[in-house]
Amino acid sequence: MSAMLAEILVPGRPASGPALALSAPISFWGGVDPKTGHIADVRHPEHGLSIAGSVLFLPGTIGSSSASAVLMELVHSGRAPAALVLHEPDAILLLGLIVAREMGWETPLALRLDRSRFGTFAGRHVTVEADGSLS
């Protein structure tokens, strides 16, 4: 597979990890356990899976102003995704990365890529470069 270029939403460190393409939007507040990195929402199709260390493909988010705090907790505890790939930017969620970076913590890269391209990465180990390329 050749590299694909995505739009950088929040710069971060290059990373690699298994692709986790969620099949439904998720709320980080109540939907992700900040202590373990597991999807805690029992109604979510990927309930029980860990987002920690994954290249997380998000088709959408279900908003809560606390999503940024949950993402910050995940970054601080080392249980954040290796990178975030969003279909649409979520300013509240991304604020968690921006604040974590301001606090001096290493943060995952956040990218925007059309949801129709998420399937390209399903079941693969994905490398994300600082320039926004995914392979």
Structural overview:
By secondary structure, the protein is α/β, with parallel strands linked by helices. It has one domain (4-134): 3-Layer(bba) Sandwich (Glucose Oxidase, domain 1), CATH 3.50.30.10. Helices cover 20% and strands 23% of the residues. The strands form 2 sheets. Strands 2-6-5-4-3-7 form a 6-stranded mixed beta sheet. Strands 1-8 form a two-stranded antiparallel sheet. α2 links the parallel β4 (55-58) and β5 (83-86). The longest helix is centred in the last third of the chain and has 12 residues, at 91-102. The radius of gyration is 13 Å and the shape is globular. It starts with a strand and ends with a strand.
Q: Write down the overall geometry.
A: globular
CATH topology: Glucose Oxidase, domain 1
* Overall pLDDT: 94
- In which order are the strands of the major sheet placed? 2-6-5-4-3-7
- Taking pLDDT < 50 over at least 5 consecutive residues as the criterion, the unreliable ranges are none
CATH superfamily: Phosphohistidine domain
Number of helices, counting only DSSP H or I runs of 4 residues or more: 3
CATH architecture: 3-Layer(bba) Sandwich
Number of strands: 8
Using the CA coordinates, give the radius of gyration. 13 Å
How many domains, as an integer?
1
Question: Largest sheet, if any?
Answer: 6 strands, mixed
- SSE arrangement, N to C: EEEHEHEHEEE
CATH class: Alpha Beta
Strand content of the residues, in percent?
15-25%
Question: Structural class of the secondary structure composition?
Answer: alpha/beta
Helix % is 10-25%
Distance between the termini: 7 Å
